[in-house]
């Protein structure tokens, strides 16, 4: 990912409000050249101690992506008031923008 696209993506992620989520694809569409997969890769490669709210980025359809941090992600979102339906999806009312 080009540096300017990485900067666009991280700026967008930083602006996701507490208690709201968005998708990898939605973030990609707000940039000049990122893909949903490249947003996922960006989040996987964040250095330890970063402050980006990575947990507010979810897969299409409001599901948590299948990754090692999914349990922590669910806990962080729940602590912010985000709820999950019986199928494990986040209702549309929690999506930003």
TrEMBL record:
Matches recorded under CDD domains: ATase
Gene3D superfamilies on file: Winged helix-like DNA-binding domain superfamily/Winged helix DNA-binding domain
Sequence ranges assigned to domain Methylated-DNA-[protein]-cysteine S-methyltransferase DNA binding in this UniProt record: 6-82
GO biological process terms on file: methylation
Origin superkingdom: Bacteria
InterPro entries cross-referenced by the UniProt entry: ATL_DNA_repair (IPR052520), MethylDNA_cys_MeTrfase_DNA-bd (IPR014048), MethylDNA_cys_MeTrfase_DNAb (IPR036217), WH-like_DNA-bd_sf (IPR036388)
Keywords (A to Z) from UniProt: DNA damage, Methyltransferase, Transferase
GO molecular-function terms, A-Z: methyltransferase activity
The protein's name in its UniProt record: Methylated-DNA methyltransferase
